[in-house]
Amino acid sequence: MKVLVLNSGSSSIKFRLFNMKNEQVMSRGTVDRIGIDNSFLEIENFRGEEYKIEIEIPDHTTGIEMVKDALIDKKMGVLDRFDQINAIGHRVVHGGEKFADSTLIDEEVVQQIIEVSELAPLHNPHNLKGIRICEEISPQKPQVAVFDTAFHQTMPQKAYMYALPYHYYQKYGIRRYGFHGISHKYVTQKAAEIMGRPIEELKLISCHLGNGASVAAVKNGKSIETSMGWTPLEGLVMGTRCGDLDPAIIPFIMEKEDITIEEMKNIMNKESGLLGISGLSSDSRDIRKAAREGHHRAQIALDLFNYQVQKYIGAYLFIMGGLDAIIFTAGIGENASDIRAAILEGVEFLGLKVDQQANQTRQKIAEITTTDSTTKAFIIPTNEELVIARDTVRIVEKCKNAGVI
């Protein structure tokens, strides 16, 4: 089965085409700067050939048409005809409580995604654009929605409820949902595979550390806690997001600074985090370089980031009643050896000792603990697209067997 995976954002479309017979990536690429000057399509095929097309891309329809044309192009393409694709999988950020698993897309599912879009107004509407355009371009192809929130739907009520009046949960669905679920699912399953043990027997902590960052406690293969909440703003310090905050600070600042709700949202989401503390950058590479050069606020930002990850790991260790392995993934998690070392400093009481040489590994699977460590730590590059492709195959085959398609 050949599966096209799409991740439609506000001004970009990321795509990957898989041959699921051997899970080979046949083609991958990005349509970027949609509706903005200097827009382009970049594509790489399994032969290692790379191409870039710089052309005006006014909207998502044009972008997806370009992906279609590129995949069947005689020079850069990998298909003779677009209908050789058997199914299309879409990343959808928010599924609310309606979706605890990936699902075949029909009109009812589309309407349910629309209903929860107010919980992810920056993401779901753009994810839906990709779905609608594919319906027009290839109406006979089954499409599957894979939700970033679904993996965390196994959290118990005591973990996802907020201590607000209960009717806000009933009326508006105000509860903790968690995000990065596709990534947490992939890396914990991969860790179990590396360890040669059933995931149903393991207690794992997954640290997805990038510009957006979250930690998840995965016990016996199920997410039981995660740091992000109703929105991706809760939890760790991130590139531009503030993370955990005393809620009384918000009206205090609004009153003192005479600013609007929208301005306050912008401060918390786009002007805070590493950027807000350091005053330099939201990129951890810039922060780490400045800290090494003696920049005081950069060091504070770095220390706070590392400390918060440690704090969540400690909490999750306790609620799981033990720990078999810690996993680092995403841009920071896969590349920043100094941050990994700082997070794992002083945890020898867990039977975890960092192998300093192994910890220099970047962007590939590695065990970074010594052979005598009873608790392991791994670098595992995430692969959300492969999870989406696998789920698309699983859902399509399930629906075929049930006679739905």
Please characterize this protein's 3D structure.
This protein has helices at residues 60-72, 107-115, 124-137, 157-160, 166-172, 181-195, 249-257, 261-270, 273-278, 284-292, 296-320, 330-335, 337-343, 384-401, and strands at 2-8, 12-19, 24-32, 40-45, 50-54, 87-92, 103-104, 143-147, 203-209, 213-219, 222-226, 325-329, 366-367, 376-379. The model has no long low-confidence stretch (mean pLDDT 95). The protein has an eight-stranded mixed beta sheet with strand order 5-4-3-2-1-6-8-7, with helices on both faces. It has a six-stranded mixed beta sheet with strand order 11-10-9-12-14-13, sandwiched between helices. It is globular. It has two domains: 2-147, Nucleotidyltransferase, domain 5 (2-Layer Sandwich), CATH 3.30.420.40; 197-384, Nucleotidyltransferase, domain 5 (2-Layer Sandwich). A hairpin with a 3-residue loop joins β1 (2-8) and β2 (12-19). The chain contains 14 helices and 14 strands. Helix content is 38%, strand content 19%.
